[in-house]
């Protein structure tokens, strides 16, 4: 064993330090579609914050690149390690430490999956409302990428639901930020700086998440529209209505057809309407009483009809759940139909019609196609990019991102940049901002060990 | 005129650069109670981001300390300039640039007051929901201090309602962060880093704020409780009920008596109940229909009675408004009754009974008193500290802050540290975090010109 291997093994125990051929393939990738898998030189599975601190202090001394891994469900390649690097897997730090009903928070270790957190909080009538579409994702991963998902339109994104952290700096210092408190004005908000930093600033070893009361009654309204612009025009009206949807999604017809086909959905929509519409709006409502929910569903139906919906379908429990689940699995559907890349560009929601029309034209010019669905209320557009030629695809994606930025948006709303989108970011972002971010990075990570291929072009 | 005076005057025009005796007293203070007023050497009133950029670039070159000022309503002394410094007043940058109903945002200059923003958004049925209790405060000031206020329990704090900024770095670079978008995962969240930084990192020259639909119907329920702990125990139950209050405040009896007296309130509470209760809970509800509001008020009344309220009063329009306004003016009431200092410590809401009992004992031991009210839903306790002896008061406040931190809270929930609370912060905060924050500060502000007495002990 090399000296470094011994040092890492001494920290986590020989059984929790893998190296060389003993490293399983799983640790070489996440769910991103285009990046080559890469096995790390070492995998460490620490059990405590102190072990993480010792690993990072050692890596800083040795100049070893470090990549953090939760469940490996990321879509940007932020969990792909360096060949000469250390992968820190949080699989053993997977305990829900506390469900605090008075303060309505849970304190969890980063390796906890959303499925586990959900199961633990259900008996208390509370829940962590960030559902990024993959319940096997970890809370630590949610922190890294600032996860969003369908419920963000009502409950916000990870950033709004992560109240505090225990985090380890690359120097090996352990800090606590925020707390079981919803507000603080006592120095810089380090919690918010670490959330969304994709493992480049510090590694979270404990996360305090906000819990909301679960409302008992919910229903889903599905409205096909003949015209895409009508869907987009309906969005601010639905939001201004006071109905407070917890899901507000659009699904284009290509994607709906793929979802219906691959997920075996039965939505009861006549062929004639299905064939004549360009997109669907999905509006999910919830309330604390069944009566109010019924009223809201009726009001939503009237409103959508006023706004030009070809028809309005109220989906009953089973089929509503199936549609939402199918929508959550849109990534897998995109993969199944042969998507060459996926993006989750965000634009101001008022710019979605213009953006999507331009994207279709750009894709077509490149000899490809772009189809998708997205968080209409948030302007967060999830697109499957179909374009086999790698060079053309790269140019197409660059053009799409440039357009989004021109419209006041950003490359990614919730997936993050990872290894895959960082080159676009460095090309398109204001150099003054990139330089500032890099100075911030160095203020956390003077040795530059944390995920050096993500957000910046490190040597 | 000195060379520096000429340089600043060339940027903003001679009529917008004051120096020496021409500087009015107003620019020497904010509303903080204990810090000595200090006139700056220069006051500049820029009209554009470009002028702000030139001012900062010049100040960086000359090593001139710079303090930003909005409306001067801050409560921590963050707007008190240095004697040798430049005060940048945003009074001329006071335009609402856009109310965007599709994206439900407003784009404003930092000098816009909340009164002006409110008046501009009312016709659209939308509103900026951060109400820190002083409607003459500026949006720029809200950004600086991460303002909160009573509605934070439903609508969040400034941090959750500021979606993007145009900001000037101390080096003179102008950047744009965030946008008319609710989510982004594309590099570090510079917006969130600048919000709450009290003018120490960058100066906002444009702010994109989130607007919410205004709900038409609202009512306020007032519940006196015999026992303080009962009030605190009621808070999580009200929050878990799904009633979604937009205000959830406690007011102790001393403060209520002062409010009733100084604001001439008539709440219709019999003497017998008033005399036997320790604190009040104020629950404000709103809904899109009058019927639902009535139901919710009834349900809230039943719930509060179950939770031990001595009685429940539903305040009609006029008296409800008066009570909320009186509560918003609690700072002025504290000042009127001779408070020697005020604090807005935050603790996990479950720790409020313990915290407040300990504070009363600490104050009494110091020969003083502490009375107040606060954002019960947020654990944000506003206390008037009555203790004439400056040394004893300093020790008392240090003890109170240390206790709050021990309970998992922080020195300030929304007022910020400013000049007044920075010494406590430097004494009580984890040195590793202070050092990290200082490195972040330097990554923005290499010359150390921005508000050098705030958050850090600069030379």
UniProtKB/TrEMBL annotation, chains A, B:
Q: Which UniProt keywords apply?
A: FAD, Flavoprotein, Oxidoreductase
Query: Keyword Iron-sulfur on this protein?
Result: no
Molecular function per GO: FAD binding; oxidoreductase activity
What does the record give as cofactor? FAD
Q: Does the keyword Membrane apply?
A: no
FAD-binding PCMH-type domain segment(s): 35-214
Sorted alphabetically, which SUPFAM superfamilies does this protein's record hold? Answer: FAD-binding/transporter-associated domain-like, FAD-linked oxidases, C-terminal domain
Q: Give the protein name, as stated in the record.
A: FAD-binding protein
- Which species is this UniProt entry from? Mycobacterium saskatchewanense
Provide the organism lineage as a comma list.
Bacteria, Bacillati, Actinomycetota, Actinomycetes, Mycobacteriales
């Amino acid at each position: 064993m090399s000296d470094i291997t011994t040092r890492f093994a001494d920290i986590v125990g020989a059984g929790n330090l893998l190296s060389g051929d003993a490293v399983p393939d799983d640790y070489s990738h996440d769910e991103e579609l285009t990046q080559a898998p890469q096995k790390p030189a070492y995998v460490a599975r620490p059990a405590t914050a102190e072990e993480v601190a010792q690993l990072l202090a050692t890596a800083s001394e040795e100049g070893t690149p470090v990549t953090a891994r939760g469940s490996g469900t990321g879509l940007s390649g932020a969990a792909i390690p360096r060949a000469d690097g250390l992968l820190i897997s949080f699989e053993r730090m997977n305990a829900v430490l506390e469900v605090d009903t008075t303060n309505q928070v849970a304190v969890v270790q980063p390796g906890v999956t959303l499925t586990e957190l959900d199961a633990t909080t259900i008996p208390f009538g509370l829940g962590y409302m960030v559902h990024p579409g993959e319940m096997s994702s970890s809370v630590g991963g949610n922190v890294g990428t600032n996860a969003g998902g369908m419920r963000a339109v009502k409950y916000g994104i990870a950033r709004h639901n992560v109240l505090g952290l225990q985090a380890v700096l690359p120097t090996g210092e352990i800090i606590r930020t925020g707390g079981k408190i919803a507000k603080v004005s006592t120095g810089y908000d380090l919690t918010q700086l670490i959330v969304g930093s994709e493992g480049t600033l510090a590694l979270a070893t404990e996360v305090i998440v906000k819990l909301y009361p679960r409302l008992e009654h919910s229903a889903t309204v599905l409205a096909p529209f003949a015209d895409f612009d009508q869907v987009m025009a309906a969005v601010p009206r639905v939001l201004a209505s006071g109905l407070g949807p917890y899901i507000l999604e659009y699904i284009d017809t290509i994607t709906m057809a793929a979802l219906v086909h691959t997920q075996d959905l039965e939505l009861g929509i006549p062929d004639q309407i299905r064939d004549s519409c360009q997109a669907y709006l999905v509006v999910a409502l919830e309330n604390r009483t069944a009566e109010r929910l019924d009223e809201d569903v009726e009001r939503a139906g009237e409103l959508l009809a006023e706004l030009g919906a070809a028809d309005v379908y109220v989906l009953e429990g089973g089929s509503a759940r199936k549609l939402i689940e199918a929508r959550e699995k849109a990534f897998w559907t995109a993969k199944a139909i042969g998507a060459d890349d996926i993006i989750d560009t965000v634009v101001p929601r008022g710019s979605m019609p213009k953006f999507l029309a331009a994207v279709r034209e750009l894709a077509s010019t490149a000899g490809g196609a772009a189809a998708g669905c997205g968080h209409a209320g948030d302007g967060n557009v999830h697109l499957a990019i179909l374009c086999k030629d790698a060079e053309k695809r790269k140019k197409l994606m660059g053009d799409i991102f440039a357009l989004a930025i021109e419209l006041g948006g950003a490359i990614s709303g919730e997936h993050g940049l990872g290894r895959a989108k960082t080159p676009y970011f460095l090309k398109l972002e204001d150099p003054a901002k990139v330089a500032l971010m890099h100075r911030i990075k160095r203020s956390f990570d003077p040795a530059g060990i944390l995920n050096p291929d993500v957000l910046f072009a490190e040597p």
